[in-house]
Specification:
mainly alpha, 251 residues
């Protein structure tokens, strides 16, 4: 049995297989929660990134309520098979990934506070959806979906795809191409939160912070892989929800 050293942990948890094992409980909880929440609804409400993926699949003539989830699983399995790495995974490493993700979510709070102080000190925290979602369980379900689906769409597909295209087709490598792809994916990530009837109004604070958060998640994706980026995004959303509940509770 392989000893889980710090270097081994960092190496193994960057692998697509460990990312899949780590996000699978989050993905299953979201998919089950969405079906419970939307039971009997003619217009089911799902995460925006999940909806975009489903729309893309429908344009290709592929339909199904769980196809976007299947796409995430299939993509990670394909990437791991392509890497030709071992199919063995470490449960302790997966558990530590949860702790690492929670710790990595914390820097977003001082970053957000700094942006808010510069742009609009009276603004409410973004990503809390206080006027859209009703109920703690409903909020948690959608926050789980945001962490998994938004990181899959904007980091794994968009950021990873742009880097692969720049490297393999255009022959562009190095820091400049990485930063360009990172910024484009971060801007796209910020923009999606302002689209549609339930989107937030575009303000310097909301758009600026989400762009910075997108850069941060993108950096985590490049350095630590999809699983840690998705876990960090999920933990941040949950921490925001907890902070909103604490601040809104009577003294």
């Amino acid at each position: 049995m392989e000893t889980l050293t710090p270097l081994t942990y960092l190496d193994r948890t960057r692998q697509p297989l460990h990312s899949l094992v780590f996000i699978l409980p989050i993905l299953v909880t979201y998919e089950m929660g969405v079906r419970i929440i939307n039971y009997g609804s003619n217009v089911p409400r799902i995460n925006g990134a999940d909806a975009l993926i489903k729309q893309g699949l429908q344009m290709l003539g592929v339909y199904g309520s769980i196809l976007s989830a299947c796409l995430i699983v299939a993509t990670l399995l394909f990437l791991h098979a392509h890497s030709r790495q071992s199919w063995r995974f470490s449960i302790p490493a997966v558990l530590i990934m949860g702790i690492e993700s929670a710790v990595l979510a914390l820097p977003l709070f001082p970053l957000g506070a700094a942006v808010r102080a510069v742009t609009d000190p009276s603004a409410a925290l973004p990503m809390s959806w206080p006027s859209v979602m009703q109920g703690f369980s409903r909020d948690v379900v959608y926050m789980l979906g945001a962490g998994v689906y938004e990181e899959f769409l904007f980091r794994l597909l968009l950021l990873g795809g742009m880097l692969a295209f720049a490297t393999n087709v255009l022959g562009c490598k190095g820091f400049r191409s990485q930063m360009t792809a990172l910024l484009i994916s971060a801007l796209a990530f910020a923009a999606i939160h302002h689209i549609g009837p339930e989107g937030d109004p575009i303000t310097p604070y909301y758009f600026g912070f989400r762009t910075i958060a997108g850069v941060y998640f993108g950096w985590l994706f490049l350095v630590r892989g999809y699983g840690i980026a998705a876990g960090t995004h999920t933990w941040y959303n949950l921490f925001v929800k907890i902070s909103v509940l604490i601040n809104s509770s009577p003294a």
